[in-house]
Design brief:
Rossmann fold, globular, 7-stranded parallel sheet, alpha/beta, 6-stranded parallel sheet
């Protein structure tokens, strides 16, 4: 069998993972094994993208066949590092114990704000980490989770969960009025969308564009004020047009492991509002620098954040700061973490 520098075992062949693996494969030999076929709550083009590395999609196989294939790779393939993409799957656990600990790594996207560290769930996470010699943690909130779990192995902070489709940032244009807001994502409870649409009752001169779909769509449409508009699902290739028609991106989640969509919004020139529980807080978003981070302990936190970012002087300052960001360099640094 072939030999590899990195073997990735992850669930879904998302476009940003493909982009990351393609870049790593330019310097090191990569095999990526995708254990699931797809998520019906995602747009179809969420899985688009060229594959320039060796790969295997196990999505249509039964459980026995998946285990057999993975064990065959572990026992008969030469590899320097096995990078597991999660700890919630039995397949990941089997691989963690079948592969030598010194070769095992873990790509951690879960953050301390949405992960249990106590009780039997915390114990299971500690057992899993005992089989891991290196963790690729997305950011500071992921590192805090490792600290809470008393992980003592090597940690690399990647400042990303993959490589999104980077575009040229639109030029800065000062604004005297900030009225157009946008949310992009699934309509599910953890996104805190009921409170988001309710906040816009206080801002009748503003509009909120809701891009996406999900189990809460009918309820959200029923309770939203007239200045909240729904577009349905939008292909990833068309999202830049939607970002650039608006002034501010909002992700008010109760829990959010990372928030790749925040990176996309910033890359399209939009200042952002996020909650303190969005995993990229402190890595991608700096409060008062390129966006506003609200705390749930604040009174009426979403409305307060909207009011703040609508101040033209503040908005134009953070908008200019975004134009100073080298998004391609951020991606290069993330890729470099995996090449060490």
């Amino acid at each position: 069998m072939k030999s590899y520098d990195k073997v990735f075992i992850t669930n879904l062949p998302s476009f940003y993972k493909k982009n990351l693996y393609n870049e790593i494969n330019k310097k090191q030999r990569v095999l990526a094994i995708f254990t699931d076929d797809g998520d019906p709550t995602r747009n179809g083009d969420f899985y688009n993208g060229n594959i320039e590395f060796d790969s295997e999609n196990l999505g249509k196989r039964n459980s026995f066949s998946k285990v057999f294939f993975l064990l065959k790779i572990i026992f008969f393939c030469e590899y320097k590092m096995l990078i597991l993409g999660g700890w919630n799957s039995a397949l990941q656990w089997i691989c963690a114990f079948a592969s030598p600990r010194r070769k095992n790594a873990f790509a951690l996207e879960s953050s301390v704000s949405e992960s249990t560290v106590k009780g039997w769930k915390g114990l299971l996470k500690r057992i899993f980490l005992s089989r891991i010699s290196k963790v690729f943690a997305s950011g500071k909130m992921q590192k805090k989770l490792l600290d809470a779990l008393e992980y003592c192995g090597e940690v690399a902070i990647t400042k990303g969960v993959g490589v999104y489709n980077i575009v040229d940032v639109p030029p800065f244009e000062p604004k005297s009025e900030i009225r157009n807001f946008i949310y992009v994502g699934r309509f599910i409870h953890c996104k805190n969308l009921e409170n988001l649409v309710a906040a816009f009752e206080k801002f009748p001169d503003c509009t909120l564009t809701m891009v996406g779909y999900g189990e809460l769509e009918a309820k959200l449409r029923a309770v939203s004020p007239k200045n909240v508009k729904f577009t349905g699902g939008v292909e990833n290739a068309r999202l830049p047009d939607y970002y650039r028609q608006n002034d501010v991106f909002i992700l008010p989640s109760f829990s959010e492991p990372w928030g790749l969509v925040v990176e996309e919004a910033l890359n399209n020139g939009l200042p952002v509002i996020i909650s303190e529980n969005v995993g990229c807080d402190g890595e991608v978003v700096a409060d008062g620098v390129n966006g506003v981070v609200f705390r749930f302990s604040d009174k009426d936190p979403i409305a307060k954040a909207i009011q703040k970012i609508r101040e033209p002087a503040f908005y134009n300052k953070i908008s200019q700061n975004i134009r100073k960001t080298d998004f391609k360099e951020i991606a290069r640094r993330q890729i470099a973490c995996y090449l060490v």
